[in-house]
Specification:
It is built from nine helices and ten strands. With 261 residues, the protein is α/β, with parallel strands linked by helices. The longest helix has 18 residues. It starts with a strand and ends with a helix.
């Protein structure tokens, strides 16, 4: 059974249909890359999966060690309450294009804040906070920032800030980690250091969904690739098929244009 199952997902903004029936499944430990032109629905899909936007129809289910959880079912006709949305989000981590770090907090504080808030009101709080700090330090070391624990975002390069954002997304131990064009705000040198961290996570069998324009990265790291355009999946499959020998003319056209860039 797949870890993440998305079935016939739709998203409308008033009369504008942005997602028109997206379906895919993702096994535990796999990396899925989502490619496609700007405005095709890629970011909206991630925002719906993370409940930053509420889907208009469809189904989202997660199968973790505690069983199958239907996070959203448009056919049920029930609006999710704020507490349900918060619980749903705990299954997922999201790394944004523009880092979204808290400027008033150090790298270590940015990573440890959410787990500390989750620990509020529980017994043995001191011991919990100590464990959270130790885990946060370990995560920053994993992304190569063990020497930047007490640096503020303005003291870090863009690539370093994005690596802090990755550590922060991992801090709550999500089932699936989402990346929304994580290198789009970075120059080529800094892009490499962020992609290196994501490659390492893939080697560690972190389950990931990556919206990217880095075709070489998608080819090397992905288990599956989705090409989305106009709110629909035009083509999906292993990278050697979608990127190496696409069946659809629209996919070939997109990749040719990319090569010219």
């Amino acid at each position: 059974m797949a870890l993440l199952e998305v079935t016939d997902l739709h998203k409308n903004f008033d009369q504008l249909q942005v997602l028109k029936g997206i379906s895919f499944s993702l096994e535990k430990g796999q990396t899925l890359s989502i490619i496609g032109p700007s405005g095709g629905g890629k970011t909206t899909l991630l925002r719906c999966l993370n409940f930053l936007e509420m889907p208009s129809a469809g189904k989202i289910a997660i199968n973790d060690e505690t069983g199958c959880h239907v996070l959203f079912d448009g056919s049920a006709g029930k609006e999710l309450k704020a507490a349900q949305i918060r619980e749903n989000r705990l299954h997922f981590g999201l790394v944004f294009q523009s880092f979204n770090l808290f400027p008033q907090y150090t790298a270590l504080q940015n990573v440890s804040l959410a787990p500390q808030l989750r620990a509020k009101g529980k017994e043995d709080r001191k011991a919990q906070l100590q464990a959270i700090e130790e885990k946060s330090i370990d995560l920053l070391r994993r992304v190569g920032l063990g020497d930047k624990l007490n640096y503020y975002p303005h003291q870090l390069s863009g690539g370093q800030q994005q690596r802090v954002a990755i550590a922060r997304a991992l801090a709550l131990t999500p089932d699936v980690l989402f990346f929304d064009e994580p290198t789009s705000a970075l120059d080529p040198e800094l892009t490499g250091e962020v992609l290196s961290v994501i490659r390492q996570l893939a080697r560690e069998n972190m389950t990931m969904v990556v919206v990217t324009h880095e075709m070489g990265f998608a080819q090397a790291v992905s288990d599956q690739v989705l090409f989305i355009d106009g709110g629909v999946i035009v083509e999906q499959g292993p990278p050697e098929q979608v990127l190496g020998a696409p069946a659809e003319e629209r996919t070939r056209q997109f990749l040719r244009g990319f090569a010219k860039d």
